[in-house]
Structures are given as C-alpha cells and as structure tokens.
Amino acid sequence: MKVLSLHSAGHDTGVGYFEDGHLRFAVETERLTRTKHDHRADVALRHVLAQECVDAGGIDLVAVSTPVRGALLRIPDLDVAMERVAAGATHHRTTCELLGRTVDCVVVTHEVSHAALAAHYAGHEDGTVVLVNEGRGQVSRSSLFRVAGGRLEWVEKDPLPWYGNGFGWTAIGHLLGFGKSPSVAGKVMALGGYGEPSARVRDALLAVDRRVMDDLAVAERVRAELAARPEFGRDFGTMARVVASFQELFTETVHELLSRHVARTGTGWGPLALGGGCALNIVANSELRRRFGRDVAVPPACGDAGHLAGPGIYALRYLAGQDVAPLGVYANGAGESREAALRALAGAGLEPVPYDRAAVAGTLAGGGVVALLQGAAELGPRALGHRSLLGSPAVPGMRKRMSEELKQREWYRPLGAVMRGERFAELYPGQYGSPYMLFEYDVPEGVAPEARHVNGTCRIQTLGPEESRLHALLAEFEALSGTPALINTSLNGPGRAIAHTAGDVLDDFAGSGVDLFVMDDVMARRRS
Questions:
Q1: C-alpha span between 463 and 283 (Å, rounded)
Q2: Residue 444 pLDDT more than 90?
Q3: Are 468 and 355 spatial neighbours (Cβ–Cβ below 8 Å)?
C-alpha cells in the first residue's frame, strides 16, 4: 500500500510517504523554507510528490492529522469529519482530491496521530500505555491511550491539571515575559537548572483556578495576579525558582498519573511511551525512567513535526492491520548531491578538499568548531549528527562560543553532547542509552565541562557504529584529546530552522567563526 501522510495545518507541518510499510520519504516544511514552525504544508507536499522515489500517481490512501487545511486536501465531508472528531472519534474515513483524482482518505484525530507514533517507537507492544501531552490538541491537552489486542484505545482525555501539561509551560513562559511561540517552553525549561523549588511558588501554582485552561478571562486574571507577586518577579534568580518549582510539580503530576495506569508485571512495570511536545522535557523523561525502572519510548519527532508520520502509521497499523517498519531518525528529506555541495562551497569562496577524518579530529581537538552535514537530515528538533555543529567540551569557552556567539542563543541554555554507545556503556554501566538525545545524565565535575549544565547534567546522545563517519570521528577525537564526547548542537543560525542543504549551512555560517565545513565526502576550511 502507498500512503501519503500529512500534517497540513498548524505549526511544524510536513509530509511523509509510505510504501509497503516503509517510510520512503519525509520532509518538514521548515527545512525547505528555513522558517521555524512553518505552517505552509503545500510547500512540503509539492516537494514530496516531485521525488523520484514517490509514486504520486499510485497513492492508495491519504492519511491526515487534524486540524486539516481544507484548501490543500479537498475533502467533501470535512465538516462531518471534524464533528465526529470533536465528539471523540479516533478517525473518519472519507475521500479527498489529489492530483486531479479522488483518493481514499482517513482523517486521524491529532492526539491519536501522536499516540500512534509513540506506540510505534514502543514496538506496538500489547499493554503499552501512551501519554500524549501537549499545549493544545484537537480535543484535549493531554490524553492517555493503551495498545490492546492490536488496537489503539483512547483511555482518558485531559487527566492532567494545567500544571501537568504543555499549556502550563506556555503559561509560565508568558507569565515570565517570554511570549507564546512554540519555542517558548524549551527556552523556559532551561532556567530550572539554576534554581531550587520554592514551597511558596508551589502553593501559589496549586491554588490557581482550574478554569485557567478553558477561559481566557480567567487566564488573564491569573496571569496579572501572579505577576504582581514578588515570588513571580522577572529577575533571573526569581524566574529560575519559579521554573524549578513548576518542573518539580509537572514531573510529580505526570508520574502520579502514569503510576495509576502503567501495568505492574512480575518483574516491574509494563511498557510506556510518551508523545506530544511535553515529551521533549528531558528532566521529566529521565525521572520517569528512574522511578519506573525501565526504558521509556519517546519518538525524536514527538511534537507536531511527528504528524508527517503519525497518521500514516495509524492508518497502516491500526486500520489496515499492516506492519510498519521501524523509522530511521535520519529521514528528513534527501542528502545533498556532491555537485550541489561543491557549487555551494564555490559560491562562498571556499576551497573543497576530500574528507579527512584525522584533520577534522585535529581541528576539534585544537579548539575549532565544525559544521557537519551528511545524508538525509534528522526528523524532529534535535541535532543528531547529520545537521550538527560540533565542538570540544573540554576547551574553555566553547559553550559560550557555540551557543551565544555562533547561534546567538540565551546564555543560560545548555548544550547536548554525542558519545559512542560503547563508551557510554563503560561510563554509565547498566543505564539506558539515549539515541535521540531525550534524557539527561550526571556528568562528573571536570569531565566535558563545556557540555555540563549548571545542575551537573548533560543531555547525551548515544551513537552506534551504524553511523560510521561520526562514530569513527568520535574515536579519533578521543584518542587525540582524551575526551569521550563532542558538543553536538543543531546546525542553524539565529532564528532560523535547522539547515537542510549545503547552501543553507553557508548562508548561516560562511561568515562566522566556524572553522571547518564537512559536507559528506568533501570539506573546506573557512577563509582566513
């Protein structure tokens, strides 16, 4: 079966194409336009349908998550579909118009799409409990699902209070003056490491009117009342205490809910998966792992970008009963051709030479910054070695140089790191790995200090030998420097989406302090 899977409306739109149960091609709109959280799904749709690997004329089914952009997919009974969704339906079968012909279509409820993707990363294991937790879904802000007998069952809607879901993170960001964009939560969460929870702040949060999620007038009144209190001031130390208090309350609340639903087995707890934007909260993710004593499945594109695959997985697995192959994280678009990379380098006045691992490792060990582009890009918001800025975590000032100067991010935000899986196993025996950089680990003082957050942790990506180039580079870098990891942060300039092409990389960084550009099998040093 050939399935076109779409996230057509809202932020972080994108399109995927499944054939015979495999995700053959996918792309997030923002990677093509360089506009973060771009809503213009038509750009991604045209791009996907133009690919040689996509049989545009042979598509059997279109699967789309809600909300639906009606002008993009002409669905004759869209109003009926949305009425059914609002009434609690998981999906609605219909038709749509695609390339001048009528195609079978399934409209998949937003929360269900998230749940199907999360369940996929848990292997669709029977009994898996899935928590979808986000700022706003189609009919809920949080939902519980369970995989049972080959079905995805919706167990409960809105089981979490305002301080247990994404609405709460957005509200705290707005209260502290960070605005309301989809990026706010990530910026705010980083503050928590600089503060300690406060009982007074916690009590004030618990006392907030429960109608705050559903009534704008109540929400504004609560914001004004809290903003007037000194414990919610906007100096850095006060904001850090607020966020630390909120994070503690959020984590406890999510754990309490899940502990009531995750199955107990003879050896511990049953399978658990997380979806929605709140699954990017690494503090909560890590604490859930610790408290349940087992791994937690989290997709790398757990936010709305994952809807380019979620509806297709739901339609194939839970409606058609077909197996869906595991998704590779490096599935965002296609790699650059050598000719395109060479043209981009020439346009920037850079002299390309063949890739030389020893030279790259030496640049990093000597305190240089490397921009790395290889193959298809990562799905989701994390840099995982295909669109990455790399630097040594042992070189003083590297965090400031990479985060504040090159990317112009807020000074307090931490950087992640990438480490070979076998070295991770030696340094963290018995602990679960983190292939998508979604969990944190304690880092001893003096070890990789520039990747160590103020609270003593680091968001680590564990890398297997199948990623042969970066895996070998890490080994050579460690042999030169004695440091087992590299700082790994997303390859994008200030305010822009992650670079997709060689031209994007050079647009962002050709005139910056990046020392070496690596683009698959060629590389070039910056102009003196």
A1: 21
A2: no
A3: no
